[in-house]
Design a protein that fits this description.
Layout (H helix, E strand, L loop, with lengths): L1 H22 L6 H46 L1 H6 L22 E4 L6 E6 L2 E7 L9 E7 L4 E5 L2 H5 L10
Parallel strand pairs: 3-5
Antiparallel strand pairs: 1-2, 1-4, 2-3, 4-5
Protein name: NfeD-like C-terminal domain-containing protein
InterPro entries: Membrane_assoc_protease (IPR052165), NA-bd_OB-fold (IPR012340)
GO cellular component, one term: plasma membrane
């Protein structure tokens, strides 16, 4: 009677640890290793107490019970209640449209630290500051275009007014 109780207890412990390993603990942890050891110990104890036939019957019952418990746990609502139900709302930056050119002016929608969003015309695009941090609502100029991001720098006062530094005075 004690032998059957000991084998049953070892198999139940192994089953509980296997469920913990599969559903709750990521990776191979101590629970998984202990589960394998308890399964092996229970089957070995059944072999030493009941012989080969007892070990085979114990192995068959342990395998069927383990599969049934894992399938039952996967179909139960308890696993659904514990799972995370969030949606990923982020998107991959889209390619830059052909109507955006080097030299176009825009305004930052967020701080470029060094990445952020700018608006150029009607397009909102990802931008990266060239060599500085640029605050929100700052006029910027596109200096280089990459497949999914534009490189910008602050718009200078001369560019805002349309003046060129090298312009000579006309008489």
């Amino acid at each position: 009677m004690f032998d059957i109780l000991a084998v049953t207890l070892l198999i139940i412990l192994a089953l509980v640890l296997a469920v913990l390993e599969i559903f709750f603990l990521p990776g191979i942890t101590i629970a998984g290793i202990c589960s394998v050891l308890f399964y092996g110990g229970g089957i070995y104890y059944a072999y030493s107490a009941f012989g080969t036939n007892g070990a085979v019957i114990t192995l068959f019952i342990a395998a069927v019970t383990t599969i049934a418990v894992i399938i039952g746990f996967m179909r139960s609502r308890s696993l659904d209640k514990m799972s995370l139900h969030t949606e990923i709302s982020s998107v991959v930056p889209s390619p830059i449209t052909p109507d955006i050119k080097v030299g176009d002016m825009g305004v930052t929608l967020s701080r470029l630290n060094p990445m952020g969003k700018i608006i150029v015309g009607i397009h909102t695009i990802e931008a990266r500051a060239d060599n500085e941090l640029i605050d929100e609502d700052t006029p910027v100029k596109i200096i280089r275009i990459e497949p999914t991001v534009v490189i910008v720098c602050k718009e200078t006062e001369n560019e805002k007014t349309g003046n060129n530094i090298n312009t000579s005075k006309q008489k």
